[in-house]
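We close this part of the discussion by returning to an individual protein. Part of our work consisted of pairing the sequence of a single chain with a tokenised description of its backbone. What the numbers capture is local backbone geometry rather than side-chain detail. The amino acid sequence and the backbone structure tokens for this protein are reproduced below.
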Amino acid sequence: MDKNNLNISKEPWFAVVLSALLTGAGQIYSARVRRGCLLISLHIVIFCLAMWFVISLTGNIIIGASLLLLLGIIRIWNFFDAYKCATRVNTEAFEILRKESKDPWLAVFLSDLLPGLGQIYIKKWLSGFGFVAIIIALLIVKRTHPSLFFGL
């Protein structure tokens, strides 16, 4: 395999993880800089407008909530777009090589959704189900003894 092709190839799930941290970062990583900067700007503008509508005395909470819903839709779409942008720059050979084993960046993304899911994905069953059990236990304790969580 040509070493130069590996250097331009991008890990799609890493792009998704970056986009989870900052909308548009995965697109920038995938060499779609203008698209990424546009998404970052759009995210900032919509968020600021939504907060103004929600917090301002002259604002409208319904418009603010609608903008926050729109922001959530854009963020979810952003994950799919970051993945697609990253896979488009990859060679077919890199994609075949990438799909031969479990993707560690997919495990990171899944663990961000729910601790333990990433471990289950890479077949670390005991630690995966252990994390899930701990989350469930903490939720039960929080529900039955809310004072233990200091108002969280």
About this structure: Residues 105-152 form one domain. The chain has nine helices and no strands. The longest helix spans residues 61-89. Confidence is low (pLDDT under 50) at residues 1-6.
